[in-house]
TrEMBL record:
<dbReference type="InterPro" id="IPR000551">
    <property type="entry name" value="MerR-type_HTH_dom"/>
</dbReference>
<keyword id="KW-0238">DNA-binding</keyword>
<dbReference type="Pfam" id="PF13411">
    <property type="entry name" value="MerR_1"/>
</dbReference>
<feature type="domain" description="HTH merR-type">
    <location>
        <begin position="8"/>
        <end position="78"/>
    </location>
</feature>
<dbReference type="InterPro" id="IPR047057">
    <property type="entry name" value="MerR_fam"/>
</dbReference>
<dbReference type="InterPro" id="IPR009061">
    <property type="entry name" value="DNA-bd_dom_put_sf"/>
</dbReference>
<dbReference type="GO" id="GO:0003677">
    <property type="term" value="F:DNA binding"/>
</dbReference>
<protein>
    <submittedName>
        <fullName>MerR family transcriptional regulator</fullName>
    </submittedName>
</protein>
<dbReference type="GO" id="GO:0003700">
    <property type="term" value="F:DNA-binding transcription factor activity"/>
</dbReference>
Amino acid sequence: MVDDAEASYSIGEVADAVDMSVHALRFYEREDLLIGPIERTAGGRRRYREVDIDWLRICTRLRESGMPLADLRRFAALVREGSGNEAERLEILEGQRRRIDRQIRALRDARDIIDWKADVYREHLRTGDAVGLWDPTA
């Protein structure tokens, strides 16, 4: 049961604090992505602690970065286990950083192509010779 001396938050308050739906928050709990058990009031309502909110903020950023659920589950399990597995946690984070770096490079390459092609169209429009530019029917 929740200790009244420690601040606790309802599922709705936590969902608002981490900018996710209540449904998504329940999903995180079902998928075993949280680092501790969620306590309940005598009436059975979930009560979250500040540490749960802090952890959920980390989880949501990792998921937004494209971290696979399996990796996030493993990371959460390692955190729940406590000290002694920091090297494995670090490897998970470094693996995600490498994936993000590849995504950033790919997005930069895509932006460069778009910029180049937009410049081609701008120049043709400026000079008035855009008619038929890449027209597959011409």
